[in-house]
Amino acid sequence: MSLASNVPEGDLKEKWTKRLNDINLVAPNNKRLYNVIVVGTGLAGASAAASLAELGYNVQSFCIQDSARRAHSIAAQGGINAAKNYPNDGDTIWRLFYDTIKGGDYRSRESNVYRLAEISNEIIDQAVAQGVPFAREYGGLLANRSFGGAQVSRTFYARGQTGQQLLLGAYQAFMKEIDSGKIDYYPRHEMLDLVVHNGKARGIVTRDLVSGEIRRHTADAVLLCTGGYGNAYYLSTNAKNSNVTAAWRCHKRGAYFANPCYVQIHPTCIPQSGDYQSKLTLMSESLRNDGRVWVPKDKNDERHPNDIPEEERDYYLERKYPSFGNLVPRDVASRNAKYVTDEGRGVGETGKAVYLDFADAIERRGRDYIEEKYGNLFEMYHKITDENPYERPMRIFPAVHYTMGGLWVDYNLMSNIPGLFVLGEANFSDHGGNRLGASALMQGLADGYFVIPYTLGDYLGGEDLDQVEGNEEAFEEAENYAQEHIDKLLNVEGDKTVVEFHQELGKIMWDKVGISRDEEGLKEAIKEIQELRDEFWERVRVPGESANYNKYLEFAGRVADFLELGELMAKDALHREESAGCHFREEYQTEEGEALRNDEEFSYVAAFEYQGLNGEIQHELHKENLEFEFVELKQRSYK
Amino acid sequence: MSNDNMQFDLKIWKQEDGDSQGAFQEYHMEGVSEDMSFLEMLDLLNEKLIKNGDEPVEFDYDCREGICGACSLVVNGIAHGPKEETPVCELYMREFEDGQEIVIEPWRAAAFPVIKDLVVDRSAFDRIMAAGGYISTKTGSAPEANTIAVDKEDADKAFDYATCIGCGACVAACPNSSASLFTGAKISHLSLLPQGKHERKERAVRMVEQMEKEGFGDCSNHAECEAVCPVGISISAIARMRKEYMRAVTES
Ligand SMILES: Cc1cc2nc3c(=O)[nH]c(=O)nc-3n(C[C@H](O)[C@H](O)[C@H](O)COP(=O)(O)OP(=O)(O)OC[C@H]3O[C@@H](n4cnc5c(N)ncnc54)[C@H](O)[C@@H]3O)c2cc1C
Ligand code: SF4
Ligand code: FES
User: Fold this and answer.
1) Structural domains in chain B?
2) CA–CA distance from A445 to each of A154, A349, A431, A528, B47 (Å)?
3) Separation of CA A500 from chain center
4) For A24-88, what is the HEC assignment?
5) What is the CA A90 to chain-centroid distance, rounded?
6) What is the biggest distance separating any 2 CA atoms in chain B, rounded to whole angstroms?
7) What is the pLDDT of residue A2?
């Protein structure tokens, strides 16, 4: 299989138009002859399913939750970018493209990112027409705000619930197509395997999460829109059901996994309060506009923060980065929080937190100003921690938030398996080594509304697909494999719970494949993960049975996959002997302590091919070289 | 220092599946921290049960931050528990007295059959949405966004109704198991916007009829729904829905 990116020739600005001019089309009456499986109903999946159904394709849609509307996209808070230039502050498609490429530390494909910026404006049009209640000015027109990594105001938002409102817009369009009979809807179904027949993706195997029944589904193409894999770390800002299983099973059927080590760690989350903690809550990074980050100068200082005098505090971001101060990018802020807590200067009961202090801002601008700007965030913080952030500084700590890596796709969003397309956070396509705020929503909807309707037609229109019935050998084999895997999990009957294994994996990942990495730690991580995986298959205890609703059985399957993915993430991080974006290797930094890229040797996408040999997991690395024809590569500096 | 050794006597509804009879089962819980969320307390219970070779308790959740609408527990008789405008995933154990009895039940409504233990089937909500809970806009056909101006006041009001998380607490709290707050919230959101006006009649009629078809009861103004709604959807949604419905049936 090849890594042909299929990027059209020609000028950056002409590429997408050129592709649209050249694609195969499926005639309107023929679309109803094609069946398309869409796995996932987040922004990517819901928008794709609705758009394809509108075109006339027969869509089968699957999700884990009891309703499509509950996909993890619902939780996105801050906003969505577009190059509308409504504020008249000089934004252009080029600028949005450039900020995104630079923010990704030059590890993404120019052509994909440019297309994303080009499409961004149409997404806003589409969402408004659907009734998405974006924030508006008094004149009735749309409002914007600014977000990290950009000098223009290009972010559209719906209070702190932009993801919810955009997803409901897509979900409603999706429900309309259910009403018109073009979408067969399978909530509470988990995809357990991909069926590759004659070299093409032709179906999936699912488990009905209520009855436990394993089923086969046939199609002419499969669209994977199953989100990111941040839960490999156990604790993250992702929803509890977010997982890598669908992508990982595709990987094991031949789909390449690209850049697995690129994981974004968000600097402003509510810290963990105890071992029982099940997830972490994000606090919008807009808080850093007015909050000052500090820790005590001395180790183990247990005084109440308000009793620590000014001269005994270390405002370390302001000290180290005088020009950007508290507004350094996400990765820099996260890394420095780790350094000071590793030194023993962390605060709170666990010592794993730093202060974000609003006292100065409240004094300077008044409590009303802060309340108006951040009222709901302060309330949320108060609810969770029982501490009043108007009176004592917030405690914050970084948390795993987003995964830039994912299944490898070409310019058409097709993986290296013909007929398997990957959309949204599940692919690796647009964010390189680091994603800018408000760009994931943009990408998910761009993929679903405005890329896949064309590129899927191109594939279907150009292929001669034979009929599949679901009784072919590949289907048989995949179904048996899914059932055997479940039986195997239930039959271990050990003494350790799935959650215990997941927590242990999370700890290895966080400590050694987290905010900063080094060779020694990564080698240890690989070994420890292998050992943990062996232990899992000897000692895991999965309660209940398979022919019933059984949440812990679902989790067991997902943790088994995370235990394999974790190793690949560490291997990728080990092989990438440079720092880029969120991938920070201690050995590769500038004198100022910034990420030091090695463009000569590592300006490529690392795409891993799975090779299971004699029970051992092995991978072959394939490289897609990144050519930068239109932008100049630069070293970041925030001093 | 926070208290991390609270104790509770839990009475939890256990039910094998939709066809079986359910019953309460009692569990004694120790070592609960006041900083644990309610769902983390149940996680801990399940860890103990699994280690003992017993069956865990099934309950629904996903985001655990109050936005997905999956969590759905009646705690001591109140949908989502004692804290106002707070879904049960954002409820913390510090809201309870050490040593207290806590009774945990599923949403109870004919239109929400139990799947297992505390997990119910809310697919009726999806079907209400499919019966017109949208604005028909084919992908690609939208006009430039700022050609549609919306009065800020209307936009803000529409937003308030649009924040419904689809949890179903309103149904669980209603003596008639009415889905009026949920349905009214969507009808209100869309009818307040200029984009939503074209289909408003058909939408109101179809969604209301679907609600009845699913077996939800009528609204008789108890306002229990508003009291438990975790995002504070106002009962004015129901008045708006009635108005939209009446307008549609009288004018056509
Ligand atoms: C707290 C938080 C805040 C965020 N805020 C922002 C923001 O302000 N702006 C921004 O741009 N981005 C934000 N992001 C990132 C953004 O929300 C996500 O990247 C994006 O929503 C992912 O969308 P998706 O459609 O790819 O996947 P998801 O929304 O994760 O959907 C995945 C879907 O796949 C289904 N699925 C998964 N596995 C299977 C399986 N095996 N079988 C069947 N179905 C399966 C799930 O049921 C679900 O329907 C935020 C993320 C978090 C966690
Ligand atoms: S109206 Fe409130 S209680 Fe009812 S479903 Fe919506 S959010 Fe839940
Ligand atoms: S789990 Fe998502 S709202 Fe409670």
Assistant:
1) 6-105 (3.10.20.30), 123-251 (1.10.1060.10)
2) 16, 41, 15, 38, 39
3) 24
4) CCCCHHHHCCCEEEEECCCHHHHHHHHHHHHHCCEEEEECCCCCHHHCHHHHCCCCEECCCCCCC
5) 29
6) 66
7) 60
CB atoms within 10 A of CB B81: 24
CA-nearest of A219, A452, A73, A83 to B139 is: A452
Averages of pLDDT over runs of 10 residues in chain A (639 residues) are 87 97 94 97 98 98 98 94 96 96 94 98 98 95 84 90 97 98 98 98 98 98 98 98 98 98 96 93 87 95 95 96 85 92 94 96 93 85 93 96 98 98 97 94 98 98 93 98 97 98 98 97 98 98 96 98 98 98 95 90 97 84 95 81
Tokens 């655990």 label which residue? B64
User: Least CB-CB distance to A549: which of B115, B140, B193?
Assistant: B115
Nearest to A552 by CA among A196, A192, A209, A257: A209
Characterize A111-124 residue by residue with b for buried, 16 or more Cβ atoms within 10 angstroms of its Cβ, and e for exposed. Answer: bbbbbbbbbbbbbb
Neighboring chain B residues of A278 at a CB cutoff of 8 Å: 37, 39-40, 43, 64
Structure tokens at A379: 């309330």
CA atoms within 13 A on the CB side of A639: 8
Smallest CA separation from ligand 1 atom 20, residue: A73
With H, G, I as helix, E, B as strand and everything else as coil, classify residue A610: strand
The rounded distance, in Å, linking the Cα atoms of A529 and B155 is 51
Residue A237 Cβ contacting ligand 1 at under 6 Å: yes
Report the alpha-carbon angle A495-A497-A501, nearest 5. Answer: 110
CA of B117 to the centre of ligand 2 (A): 21
Closest to B147 (Cα-Cα) out of A166, A156, A128, A157 = A128
HSE (side-chain half, CA atoms, 13 Å) at B212? 7
CB-CB contact of B113 with B55 (8 Å): no
User: What pLDDT, on the 0 to 100 scale, is given for residue A571?
Assistant: 98
The H or E element that residue B26 is part of is strand B23-32
The 8-class DSSP code of residue A282 comes to: B
By the 8 A CB rule, do A107 and A626 touch?
yes
- Contact, B85 vs B165, CB < 8 A? no
**Is A202 annotated as catalytic?**
no
Q: Which domains does chain A have, with CATH numbers?
A: 265-400 (3.90.700.10), 473-625 (1.20.58.100)
Give B60 Cα–ligand 3 centroid separation in angstroms: 8
Q: Is the pLDDT of residue B139 over 90?
A: yes
**DSSP assignment, residue B158?**
H
Q: Please compute, for residue A552, the number of CA atoms within 13 A of its CA located in the half-sphere on the CB side.
A: 25
Give A178's contacts in chain B (Cβ within 8 Å). Answer: 126, 130
Distance A71 CA to ligand 1 centre (A): 6
DSSP strand pairing (B6-14 vs B101-105): parallel
- A484: its two tokens: 């055997």
Q: Using CA atoms, how far apart are residues A552 and A558, in angstroms rounded to an integer?
A: 10
The answer to whether A77 and A440 are in contact (CB under 8 A) is no
Q: Please name the residue that has the structure tokens 């009891």.
A: A66
